[in-house]
Amino acid sequence: MVATEGSTFLARRLRHVLPRALALALVTTILAPMRPPTPSAYASAPSYPIRAAFYYPWFPEAWNQGGFNPFTWYSPVPDGYYDSSDTAVIDDHIARMEYAGIHVGIASWWGQLSKTDLRIDLLLQEAHSRDFYWTLYYEPALSVTQAASDLAYIASHYASDPNFLHVKGKPVLFVYSRAVKTCADATTWNTANLVSGFYLDLQVFSDYKACPDQPDSWHQYGPASAQSSQQGYSFTISPGFWLRAEASPRLTRDPVRWRTNIANMVASTAPWQLITTFNEWGEGTAVEDAAQWNSCTGYGIYLDALRNALVGRIATCQSSPHPLATRSPITQSGPATTPSPR
Asked: What is the pTM of this model?
């Protein structure tokens, strides 16, 4: 993967490059077409605790990679190996997240005019008739000038949509570790954000609490661990982790443990309660329904468990036993491949 600029270099050059970044952001913001915000647009946005799932709008591209097709050990149902541009699929995904008590999707975003970027409007449009909100997970490697430009772009293209998540009156943006690994990186983000005014939620790193420039919040993205607590900020849970390129899972799926993880998440009272993930199929972290964990409700045992804990309404039928939790229905083989970014 492309490495971020080193922290030593950033510390040395930060004061010289940031004024240019901020100038670029300001110019981009002024010149970009703005959507007029609705004064009361965010009045019904979710309040703490906010329960959100990481979401991947990168299909069908991500189904075929590294010599594997499909690039997953599992068989998603009912939509199969779907296209993320299909509005019927998007609507179904939103409905499934709402069923499970999830009212925010954190959509993977790989930069201006990327495939994921071109689908954000579709995600927002399908949420307009629902009590559901989207934010973005910033995935590119850190570039000082690019970060400022991207913040201005996201602000002008998406942030004023009534279904783009706002917290404390600010549009929310999550940032992945590729773009934040040091305190100098956190400073870069905070300074670049002076113009656009996002609620920044950065991924944690060693000694993140000691950074002199703190973002609005912190989260962990490490779905090979069943749960992770960042006290006072977030609590994250994962159903399992089995990368298609690996012979065995790093985190075996276990519905009993999953229910315990959900209970721990709720008991944490963390402001951000996060699910990794709704549909990252290549890493086998999805809670979206699959043939391997289907249930009589049609939502699958992982979404059923979330609903029972978060919505407080027991599923109308008893979930089926957990079949083939660590076996794959995919019999084809492929060459070894470089693991995905996570």
From this structure: 0.83
